[in-house]
Backbone:
């Protein structure tokens, strides 16, 4: 992943920057134009945060084999293909589709571009196509369950990823970012993709999925584990994995992996108090030591260094 941060003080500079995406723009309001767009990009996922001062019109075609999501800050006015989009609506663009968006005089929001095949893998097969998704969310302005709550989580997570403090070359971090964004998108759009006759897995199936997952996690530690790897080990889809963990353990697979990792690190700190913390955290794929320390404190009521002092 690579972080870029561009600032444009004229509409011409902004147009030059978006031409690679087969897009064009027009300034609609008089006065000063300012645009800042931070991006973190990999082949499978592109995350962006855009701030614009000056009413603008964007139009063109999404060129690559990605779904492109726009999530404005809550309360921001936004028009997509002539429709007023509210906080509970989803804005998603398909590749090779003509789009027209109109930003208000002040716009703040994130953009997410994710490879189609990857998102489909997280979604599983629900028998609906992009056309269904587009029609039911944009043109019919479907009100999505939990849309505002999930968008709030997406905004917070993407903003944190783009703050410049992470090691963007770390492969574990890249997979963790992809997992988190994809799972939040699944939670957001799953009601649209899911067929009406789709029923949740049985209780015995959920128990089997959880037990296979826990066995795989124990056998694989301390190596980082992705959600897709858990699905493969448990012979199930992401959706079934989520159902199983929420039913049996009352938490998501992601939440369990975080808790498990914290406990494993605590065991090692207690067993080898002289060991340095930073190399240990890297073994578990942790690159943000400050956030780790806060999570550790919330769970155990003490910081890692305090645990080491106690062990000594």
Residues:
């Amino acid at each position: 992943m690579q972080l870029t941060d561009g600032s444009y003080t004229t509409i011409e500079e902004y147009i030059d920057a978006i031409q690679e995406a087969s897009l064009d723009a027009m300034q609609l309001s008089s006065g000063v134009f300012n645009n800042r767009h931070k991006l973190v990009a990999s082949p499978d996922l592109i995350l962006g945060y855009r701030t614009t001062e000056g009413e603008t019109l964007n139009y063109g075609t999404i060129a690559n084999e990605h779904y492109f999501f726009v999530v404005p800050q809550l309360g921001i006015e936004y028009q997509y293909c002539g429709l007023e989009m509210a906080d509970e609506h989803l804005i998603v663009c398909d590749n090779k589709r003509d789009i027209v968006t109109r930003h208000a005089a002040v716009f703040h929001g994130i953009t997410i571009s994710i490879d189609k095949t990857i998102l489909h893998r997280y979604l599983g097969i629900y028998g609906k196509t992009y056309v269904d998704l587009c029609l039911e969310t944009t043109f019919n302005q479907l009100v999505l369950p939990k849309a505002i709550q999930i968008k709030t989580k997406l905004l917070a997570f993407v903003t944190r990823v783009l703050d410049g403090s992470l090691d963007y070359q770390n492969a574990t971090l890249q997979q963790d970012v992809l997992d988190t964004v994809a799972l939040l998108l699944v939670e957001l759009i799953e009601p649209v993709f899911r067929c009406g006759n789709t029923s949740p897995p049985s209780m015995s199936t959920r128990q089997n999925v959880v037990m296979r997952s826990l066995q795989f996690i124990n056998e694989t530690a301390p190596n980082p584990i992705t959600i897709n790897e858990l699905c493969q080990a448990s012979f199930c889809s992401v959706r079934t994995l989520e159902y199983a963990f929420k039913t049996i353990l009352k938490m998501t697979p992601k939440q369990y992996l975080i808790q498990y990792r914290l406990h494993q690190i605590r065991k090692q700190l207690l067993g080898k108090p002289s060991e340095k913390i930073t190399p240990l955290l890297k073994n578990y794929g942790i690159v943000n030591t400050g956030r780790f320390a806060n999570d550790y404190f919330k769970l155990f009521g003490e910081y890692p260094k305090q645990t080491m002092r106690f062990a000594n």
The mean pLDDT is 80.
